[in-house]
Every structure is written in structure tokens, then in C-alpha cells.
Amino acid sequence: MSTDSSCGSSDTGALVRPILVSDESRSLLREAVDSSCLELERRHGYVRPRRFLPGGQKCILKDLGECGDRKCGNYRLGKYAAVRPDFLKFCVDHIKAFCSKAGLVYCSLGSGQLLFDWELLEHLTQKEGMHVRAIHLIDIAYGGAKHRASAVRAQRVFAGWFQERAWEKGEKGQKGRGCGEACPVRSFLSASDFQSWVARTGESVDVLLDCDAVSARKKMDVDKFRLSVLRAGGVCLVLSNPAKRIAIHKPPGNGTADTVGLRELVQQVYRRGAWHSRASQKAETTLQLHRGRGKPTPEETEATQKKDVHGYERLEQSAVELPAWYQCKAAAKMPARPSQLPPLPPSETFDEDDDDD
């Protein structure tokens, strides 16, 4: 079996061959992050860390990247610069609420050049004290006929950051010198490949990240995929374009994976520099209907009330026991000028999140 990711491996679940990251390079970069000195730039069509750190040293993660489309609602260097940092906090809060620190199994769909994945996992391990047991990365750019050399290199650097000794363990059957700290990173070219791998190995995931992965979701039953790869109790975190973030939970249950179901916890959209819950969006849409062409018909009103994300149940606070975190952090804060939005009906009010950025 060929497992050399530098050549674009097409093997399902192949271990990624890491590029060695020295302790010095890792330490220098963490110092830059801690002092808010890690600068980003648009280079070769992607948003990437600058080639050199402020002190003049080479940046070991300069090959990581994310979408550089200036028209994208999630573009980090434009007017939506707050979207991805806010989504990072959103992910961290949900992972802390629903996942154990003992050994996280993480999967990223459409992970591309992995800048956001690195930010999230680095925060979880260094700031929250979580241990990541395994990482699974899904993107067609990692191998086969459509592989991209830049994506493969980013994947290898990413693997080197998190598990430079795990390759030796997989290749030679020996324990690495990391005393259990090595974290295997596996590569998949499609969601169906990973879905089949999970069915075969039984290794479902605690966290499924879907960060602006539009192309990876094409021609697939995304609901079925999420249901089949998430473990009971796991969480799926979604960022789509235009900026919208969703948290989906697979609650523990006594049934099989096909009967437990998924529940949408939060869905928020980014408008006018702030995050708004679906309730406020619905109220504004209703107001526009009133102003634009008169009162909506009873059919429109009924459709609006019943509308929900396909395949998910609405989360009822009275019916499902949630962690204490969710009792006080149920939605995003209101916009800076609440008077711009119409008052919400009593049945659609939501609490303000004092901790939101």
C-alpha cells in the first residue's frame, strides 16, 4: 500500500507522512500566537500565515491556508474579518460542553489547507487541556487525479505539528517516544470513503467540522453522513457562506445509530457585524413581508413556522437535558442597535450571550 502523501496518496485512511516540526519552530510560533503577532496575508489565492514571524524567523506553518475569495462572506481579511475568529470560539464552547477532555476523535470535512483546523485543535490542546486521540481529514485535493501539491504539503505540515512520531508507530509497529502523545492523522478523498471506513473500523468521531465545505457536500446525503460518523454524544459544527453557523448534536440514546437522530442546537447568521439567532432573522423577514407587499398569507405564515433544517428536530429546552453551559449561553448577543430590529413575539425571544465576542 502506497502511503506517501507527498505523492498524493489515494489510499482510504492512509496515515499522512508528517514533515518534522522542531520544538524550536513550534515554540517560536506559539510565542507569536500568544502575543497576537501571527500575521496573515493573501498569497497564491489563499489566506496564509506570513512567511516570516515578526522576529525574522521562518514560520513553520506558512503553507497552511484557507479560502482567499475576497467576495466570500467568511473572508478573514475583509469586512467579515470577525466571522472565523467568532466561529472558533463557537466551536470551542460547544466542544467543551459536549466532549470529554480524555481523548477527542476529530474529523474535518473539506479540510483543504487546514489553517482553521490547526487553530481550533491548537486552542483545544494548549488552552483547554484536551487530548486529541485521532484526526481524520477529508478532501479530494489530498490525492488521486485531482490532488493539489499545496494541499498535500499543508496536510503533511499539519500532521507534523500534531504527531511527528505517529508515522513510525504505523510503519514499524513500535510505540513512539511521545509517551502516548502522538496523534495519528489519516487522509480520505471523499465523505463516502470515510463513511465506509467508520463502518468497517467502528471509530466514530466526537467532533465533525464542516467549515465552508461546500464542494465536499455536493452529491451526498449530508444528514446521513453526519448521523453515521458521529458517535452518540458527538457534535457537528458548521460554517457556511454567506456567514451562517450551526451546532448539531447527536444525543446519547439506547437505539442504534440510525434511530438516535440529530438535534440542531443553534443556528445563527452574521449580519451588520453581529450574530443573530434564527428567531430574529424570522422576525425581520416577516417585517419585510409586511412592508414590501402587505401581510403574508396564512399559508406563508404556517410555512415559516414549520420551516426547519431538513432532517433535524428542533431542540426543546423542556424536553432535553442540556449541560449547564447551555442554560446561560443559548444564543448570540443582540446587535449594537436593537432598535433596528422589530420586537420578537414572546414565543421567539432568546437570551443574550454576555460572553460573545
TrEMBL record:
Compositional bias (Basic and acidic residues): 303-314
Region named Disordered: 281-314, 332-357
Protein name in UniProt: LUC7L protein
